[in-house]
Amino acid sequence: MEARMITTALELPGYRIVTNVGVVRGIVVRSRSIVGSFFGGLQTLLGGNITIYANLCEQARLDAYELMCRHARNNGANAIVGMRYDATEIMPGVTEVLCYGTAVTVKPEQA
Hints:
By secondary structure, this protein is an alpha+beta fold. About 35% of the residues lie in helices and about 40% in strands. Pfam families: YbjQ_1.
């Protein structure tokens, strides 16, 4: 699914929603490794952006996003509206990242 067919808005400019396929989601649960925790801890001493955690979070978001897109494609959708992210710490060092939205089928609007 093309990135331009996924939006946080409730409509997709230039397209008309034909079918509401339903809610789709991608869920990833990640934990920090011992090495990552060690280097992340060192970076907290220096302050600023903690790149090892930022990279871990970005990868988890990307994986959840891709799972959501696959879920939508498998259900016959060609677009997703109302896309959001959510994250919850399940236990210390273990985080769930959820990406969800409404899968729809769209057609270009007639001019």
